[in-house]
Amino acid sequence: MLLLISPDGVEEARECAKAAEHLDIVDVKKPDEGSLGANFPWVIREIRGAVPADKPVSATVGDVPYKPGTVAQAALGAAVSGATYIKVGLYGCSTPEQAVEVMSGVVRAVKDFRPDAFVVASGYADAHRIGCVNPLALPDIARRSGSDAAMLDTAVKDGTRLFDHVPPDACEEFVRQAHGAGLLAALAGSVKAEDLGTLTRIGTDIVGVRGAVCEGGDRNAGRIRPRLVAAFRAEMDRHAREHATTVAAR
Ligand SMILES: O=C[C@H](O)COP(=O)(O)O
Q1: Would you give the DSSP letter of residue 22?
Q2: Each residue's pLDDT tens digit, 182-215
Q3: Which domain holds residue 157?
């Protein structure tokens, strides 16, 4: 399982860089603009420069409206600024058809510019609270649009977590559908270390966190700390070893 960490700007990205050996993807966002809030192009560029070259930089395009042209152009902006993972939160899409239309535009805009870029279609585990597409529709939306991964996060950061809205067996189905479509499955949403056993068991490819590696577990007031990133990775590694042993014993 890959570890994606979301700093809120250049200063925190430098903290991530200090823990680079413990993480896989640095995800640029602007949490005060929403759960998948987009940051400025110059921030993405500066973070790309601050993070070791072998660590991909991801950028969120925002909690986007159903405006395919606007979103495609914004996604290209993220790619031009140096992000190779382009994450789109389909906040304003209420049907799978709308979501496929938005993501198809993103895939074309991004891959025309950079064919090896990795496009992530993200929905929300708590979609019922904001009226957007059902979380379990995401793997098919990602497949139909030519995206590379399907992701879930939570839209409302009020302390409720991924599994509060999409229980483990439904997350397992999400992963199964994503894999069946040849996609990676990414899961986030106030994930804590205690969730890692389940996320490992169900075959999650990427886990995204912020709060869990911030001081005090506070994604807003706390700051990302390298020692917390290292501790979170150690837990991931422990669960990966335990899972491998269990599978080998079957
Ligand atoms: O993409 C991952 C998100 O930033 C997760 O943030 P969170 O762990 O604070 O919910």
Answers
A1: G
A2: 999 999 999 999 999 999 999 999 999 999 999 9
A3: 2-249
The answer to whether the CB of 177 is under 6 A from ligand 1 is no
The predicted-structure confidence for 28-49, as pLDDT tens digits, reads as follows 999 999 999 999 999 999 999 9
Of 106, 93, 92, 94, residue with least CA distance to 61: 106
Q: HSE on the CB side for 66, CA within 13 Å?
A: 13
Query: What pLDDT score does 250 carry?
Result: 86
Q: What is the pLDDT of residue 49?
A: 97
Ligand 1 near 191 CB (within 6 A): yes
**Structural domains in the chain (count):** 1
Please tell me which residue in 18, 30, 67, 87 is annotated as part of the active site.
87
Catalytic residue at 29? yes
What CATH number is attached to the domain comprising 96? Answer: 3.20.20.70
Residue 157 Cα: closest atom of ligand 1: 10
The answer to whether residue 30 is catalytic is no
> ipTM for the complex?
0.97
Ligand 1 and 188: CB distance under 6 A: yes
